[in-house]
Amino acid sequence: MDHFVYRDRTLFCEDVPVPELADTYGTPLYVYSQATLLRHLTEIQTAFAQANPIVCYSVKTNGNLSLCRLMAEHGAGFDVTSGGELYRALRAGSKGSKIVFAGVGKSDAEMKTGLENGVFLFNVESEGELHALGEVARSLGVKAPVALRVNPDLPPKTHAKTDTSVKGVKFGLDIETIIDVAKSVVGHPGLAVVGLHMHLGSPILKADPYREGAAKAVALVKAFRAQGHDIRYLNMGGGFGIHYRKQEALPAAAFAEVILPAVKETGCQLVLEPGRFIVGNAGLLVSRVVFTKSTGGKHYVIQDAAMNDLIRPTLYDSFHRIWPVHPRAEVPERPDDYEAEIPGTFAQDVVGPVCESGDFFAKGRNLPALARGDLLATFSAGAYGMAMASNYNSRLRAAEILVTGRTHRLIRRRETFEDLVACEDDCLS
Ligand code: LLP
Fold first, then answer.
1. Is residue 355 annotated as part of the catalytic site, yes or no?
2. E strands present in 185-297
3. Distance 197 CA to ligand 1 centre (A)
4. Domains of the chain
């Protein structure tokens, strides 16, 4: 459920008409609904409440400072994957003790900053990292709190580029050898192995992989404890899917049902790292049609948003619902199924101005006739949209705004041409 609704053939974000936002802030524009964002955070907190979970919002999904601050204000911790994300989480108001530090390639400097800020857990992904972290911690005279990340070797469950728990990916320690690795650091003066971590992949639309992963986790926690490690935390990562095509995602309760029994069996405190589930359906990308054209037997809608604003369609062949902000009378106000034949529509490619044939948001999509100046909404764009945006083709990154009820405010200004060259200007000889 989100708070993007059509009223009298105009799209609203909560109680604000989207055209008002486009007129005020320009396009392309990322629009977030605060009510949707908090609704999804609360849904996770409630579904897992009996385990009193530490819900660490995954900053990589959308690191906007204002959104992160909202998360912190509503009880979330943070999952960070770089020194930059750690900086964002701290700037947003998080305490280090609510931050888990993930990533396969942490530098010594990142480890040091994490330790100095007292991060709650380091998710460690290799033997080399474990020993490097132990050294950095020793040099600071502290013990690093560690959750070993296991690759639980499950069958494929999502797009190959984002499946992180199959054999042959770079993530985690092999399930066959993780026990030996754990054994090698029993009693290490710079390391306290206190947790087990796994992140299955993203997005996942079924609960079964979590059931299988959790069962493997229970066995590993027991084995680590038998070695003498005081395992207190079970981190089941993120990955919960959202609605991209229609209402296809599971509620958080479905994941809780398969994860909670394992948490209970181990007596561990549960940690989660959701990102997409919280912010994905809470964001919209609003664009304006620049031109339409028909060529080579195909119809194109050329809009002012492009692959530099939202790279997911070309990178993962992902589907985002797209519909006019002001649908005309001859088409449905909001189709139930964007993939079906929709009366009054014809197949069109929605593309942007970037100089690549891969610059598209949709191919052969059934859309009504559109004209120069029409506004388009690309739904479910809150996760990995702005976070993966770039300046490719020297395009300025979009503005972001946050809506709550009838009010709206800028949470990231549109970039300027000066921003574009800021890091190079002083270097001109
Ligand atoms: N924890 C770890 C260790 C992760 O690697 C990720 C995502 C998450 C948590 C958060 O997963 P979420 O709850 O958001 O599904 N750019 C891709 C997704 C990459 C996911 C990377 N890791 C996309 O646009 O689909």
1. yes
2. 191-197, 233-235, 269-272, 283-295
3. 14
4. 4-31+280-424 (2.40.37.10), 34-276 (3.20.20.10)
